[in-house]
Amino acid sequence: MDCDVLVVGNGIAGSVTALLLAEQGFRVILLTKGETLEETNTAKAQGGIVFRGPGDSPTKLYEDIMRASSGSSAKHSALLVARLGPILVKKILFEYLNVPFDRDGEGNLDFFREGAHSLRRILHVKDYTGRIIQEMLNQKVSAHPLVELKSGFMSLELIISSFYAQDHAWRYKPRECWGAYVFDRKKREIIPIFARNTVLATGGLNAIYEYSSGGPWNTGDGLAMAARAGAHLVNMEYVQFHPTLFYSTHPSDSFLISEAVRGEGAELIDHQGRPFMHKYHPLGDLAPRDIVARAIFRELQSTREKCVYLDLCGRLSPEKIKATFPGIYEELLRHNLDITKDPIPVVPGAHFLCGGILTDSWGRTNLGRLYAVGEVACTGLHGANRLASTSLLEALTFSYRVAHRIAKSQDGFSCSSILPWEEKIGDPPPVSVIEGLKDMVKGNTWKYVGLIRHRQGLSHAREVFLQLYKEVVTLRDRHGISKEILELTNMVESALLVTESALRNSRSCGTHFRADPPEG
Ligand code: SIN
Fold it and tell me: 35: domain range?
C-alpha cells in the first residue's frame, strides 16, 4: 500500500481532509492535476463563507438554506451544516489557519450579505476570500511531513476491485476502491497508487459550459471517473448559474462578479438604465440565484441585447468600492472599465454543481473505501439551488466528517494484484482539434442544457454528445493518453450525465427549469 489515504484534488475540501488526517498520524497522498496549487475553485471564491452573523442562529441559517432550494435540500444535511459549519469555521479557519477575515474599525468581524440570506453572515477577506484560504492551505499541506503532495498528477481511473483485480473472485464481492491509476505528467507514465481509503475532492464541471465562473480545469474528472466506477450520482441536472459574470465577447475572459456586490447595494439594470428585478421577485436584486439568473435571461430574450448591467456608481462611493472590492475593481480596470464610473456588463454563467456523487453524512459513497467531498459530492445540502457562500462551509463540514470517519474505521485492508493499465501515453492531438471538440461541448450545453431547457433541445444535445463520445474514443485510440484527451473524455461524459438527468426530470425546480411546449 502506498498510503493510508489518497485524496484527489487540493481545494478546501481535499486540503482540509488531508490535513485533518495527517494531524492524526495518517500518511496521505494529495494529488492535483495542475502544475501549481492554485488551480482550484476554492481559489476563485470571492464572496466568502457563511458564519454566524449578529442576531443569527442555526435555525435561521437552516431556514434560509431550505428557502433558497424551494424546500428541496436534504433536511439532515441542512441541519448538520447549520449547526456544525460555523463551529468548524472557528476551529479550522480562525484557530488552525488564522485566516485574516475583514473587521470593521472597532475590530468586529465584517459580514457581507448575499442573495436569499435573511441577514449579514458572510465572512470575507475583501473580495478574494478563497484565494487567501487556498494560499494558507497550500502552506500547511506543503509543510506537513505526512502529506505527500503530488502536483501534475492526473487520476485517470479509480482502482475498483471488481474491474481491475487479477483474481476473478473479487467480481463476486461488494465493489471497493483501492486507490487510482494516475497519469504522472512529468515522467509520462501511468502508475497505480494504492490506498486504504480514497477521497474524491475534484470539484465540479463548470468548464463544460461556454460562460462559466470556474477555471478551465473544471472538466468533471471526478464525476466522470466515479460514474465509470459505478458510484451513484444524483441531482446532476441541478447546475447553478451565477447571475453575474463579467460579459466579454470572448467567453474565456469572463469572470465572477460576486453577489456581495449586490449585497452592498449594486443594482441590475437593462441597456437603458432601467432596474428590472422588482418585476420578478419581492427580494429584487437579492432574490435567490436561480430566480435572478432566469430574470436576466428573460430580459436578454425580450430586449435581444447581449448583456445587462450591474451598477455600483452612485450606490457606493468610489472609495468604498475600491476598499470593498479591490479584486474586481483591479481586474475590470485591466478590461478598461472603471466601476466607480461605469456599470459592469454581466451575463449569467455556470457556477456550481448542486448534485454529484451521492454521499451519506460521513461522506461515504456506495462503493467501499471511496469517499467524496466538496462540489464533486452531493450531500443533499443544496437541493435544487444552493444558498450563496455555503459551498466552502459544506466542504469544511464534510471534510471534517470524512476525516473523522476514516480515522475511526481502520479495518484490515488487503487487495489482490491488479491488471496493468493498457493504454499508452501519447502526444495530444493538435490544439485546434481539442479546442474545436471542447467548443462543441460548451456550445451545446449552453444552448440546450442551460438556464431554460426543453425535451427537444435536451434530446438533440444528447445525440451530439453521444456522437462526440465516439470521436473522442477514436482520437484516444489514435493518440494515446494525454491530459488533454483525458479532460475531453471527462467533459463529454459529464455533459451526458447532466443532459440525461435533465431529460429524465420534467419537473422544474430551482436551477432546473423545463419549458417544454405543451403536448399535442
Ligand atoms: C459570490 O461571491 O457571488 C459567489 C459566492 C458563492 O457562490 O457561494
Answer: 2-43+127-237+354-408
If you measure from the C-alpha of residue 41 to the centroid of ligand 1, how many angstroms do you get, rounded to a whole number?
11
Cα 47 to ligand 1 centroid, rounded to whole Å: 5
Q: Which residue has the cell 475531453?
A: 488
pLDDT tens string for the chain (520 positions)? 699 999 999 999 999 999 999 999 999 999 999 999 999 999 999 989 999 999 999 999 999 999 999 999 999 999 999 999 999 999 999 999 999 999 999 999 999 999 999 999 999 999 999 999 999 999 999 999 999 999 999 999 999 999 999 999 999 999 999 999 999 999 999 999 999 999 999 999 999 999 999 899 999 999 999 999 999 999 999 999 999 999 999 988 899 999 999 999 999 999 999 999 999 999 999 999 999 999 999 999 999 999 999 999 888 999 999 999 999 999 999 999 999 999 999 999 999 999 999 999 999 999 999 999 999 999 999 999 999 999 999 999 999 999 999 999 877 888 889 999 999 999 999 999 999 999 999 999 999 999 999 999 999 999 999 999 999 999 999 999 999 999 999 999 999 999 999 999 999 999 999 998 766 5
Within a domain: residue 413?
Answer: no
47 lines ligand 1 (CB under 6 A): yes
Q: Which residues are catalytic?
A: 289
Contacting residues for 284 by C-beta, under 8 A, at least 6 apart: 275, 277, 278
Same domain as 143, residue 254:
no
- Among 352, 389, 393, 394, which residue has the most ligand 1 atoms within 8 Å of its CB, making it the best to mutate? 389
Does one domain contain both 216 and 302? no
Query: How far does the centroid of ligand 1 lie from the alpha carbon of residue 46, in Å?
Result: 6
Residue 57 C-alpha cell reads as 442562529
Which position has the grid cell 450531500?
Answer: 379
From the CA of 431, how far away is ligand 1's center (Å)?
32
| Whole-number Å distance between alpha carbons of 100 and 480 | 46
The reply to whether 91 falls in a domain is: no
Question: In terms of residues, how long is the chain?
Answer: 520
Instruction: Write out the three cell numbers for 138.
Output: 497550500
Q: Ligand 1 atom closest to Cα of 390?
A: 8
Does residue 98 contact residue 137 with C-beta atoms inside 8 Å? no
Q: Is 385 in the pocket of ligand 1 (CB under 6 A)?
A: no
Q: At what angle do helices 391-408 and 12-23 cross, to 10 degrees?
A: 30
Identity of the residue numbered 295: A
User: 391 in ligand 1 pocket by Cβ < 6 Å?
Assistant: yes
Do residues 245 and 327 share a domain? Answer: yes
340, 380: one domain: no
* Dihedral class, residue 48 (left if φ above 0, else alpha if ψ from -120 to 50, else beta): left
